[in-house]
Amino acid sequence: CLSGGRPIPARFSTMSGGGEAMVEFQLSPSSVLKIQKGDITRWSVDGSSDAIVNPANERMLGGGGADGAIHDAAGPELRAACYKVPEVKPGVRCPTGEARITPGFRLPVSHVIHTVGPIYDMRKNPEASLRNAYRNSLRVAKENNIQYIAFTAISCGVYGYPYDEAATVAISTVKEFANDFKEVHFVLFSDEVYNVWLRKANELLHK
Ligand code: AR6
């Protein structure tokens, strides 16, 4: 029985494109959470209703980390599309915790959802902002009929969020959308982040 978020036993884990193990958890009868190591710029499922989530900054014109890699892979059309997103105040296209959508251009996915996680600072309630970043990304995806969505570990690079706390927010928020997507993926760059996400998914989904 795979209901109630039980992980598929390890012998049923599959290999992703990069040859890394991918572990699956059933979120609902119709929805699966998949955790894998890899490069999010190479991820896609069907090229027509899939999206990757870009951990961007408020200016939304590219940067380092995953944001830089996504812009490099998508081509200059992505920056041009981001530039057209209206500023809500000078220099801010996407305030922290919100999300915006663009096409994927040269990426293998149909769309990129840009969100901005918090810089980790305990004086500024980073947990609420990180939860909003995941929640608003999932909302925007749903409004655009995305069926397959992939996240990386938002705020866990340049923005310094501790992995364990970030994984709790990420997985518990995805759980709120258990009936809304065919597949939600976490595509994680390092062994360390991947192992934290797996442990947390077992804690939060393996009831
Ligand atoms: N695929 C998957 N994960 C990746 C990739 C990739 N290609 N590249 C990096 N990661 P970060 P943040 C992981 O720094 O902390 C940018 O300059 C990385 O190892 O990309 O939200 C933006 O413009 C880490 O686990 O995002 C912002 O200014 C995770 O992705 C700022 O950084 C997120 O790390 C955002 O910082």
Question: What does this entry look like structurally?
Answer:
It is a single chain. It is built from 5 helices and 8 strands, in the order ββββααββαβαβα. The protein has an 8-stranded mixed β-sheet, with helices on both faces. By secondary structure, it is an alpha/beta fold. The chain has helices spanning 65-74, 76-83, 126-143, 163-176, 191-205; strands at 14-15, 21-28, 31-37, 50-55, 99-103, 111-115, 148-151, 183-188. The longest helix has 18 residues, at 126-143. A hairpin with a 5-residue loop joins strand 1 and strand 2 (21-28). The relative contact order is 0.19. Ligand AR6 binds next to helix 1.
Rg (CA only)? 16 Å
Tell me, rounded to a whole number, the average pLDDT: 92
Bound molecules: ligand AR6
Strand order of the largest sheet: 1-2-3-8-7-4-6-5
Keywords:
31% helix, eight-stranded mixed sheet, binds ligand AR6, disordered N terminus
Helix and strand arrangement:
Layout: E1 14-15, E2 21-28, E3 31-37, E4 50-55, H1 65-74, H2 76-83, E5 99-103, E6 111-115, H3 126-143, E7 148-151, H4 163-176, E8 183-188, H5 191-205
Parallel strand pairs: 3-8, 4-6, 4-7, 7-8
Antiparallel strand pairs: 1-2, 2-3, 5-6
The structure holds ligand AR6.
Ligand AR6 binds next to helix 1.
Domain Macro: 20-205
Protein name: Macro domain-containing protein
Organism: Penstemon smallii
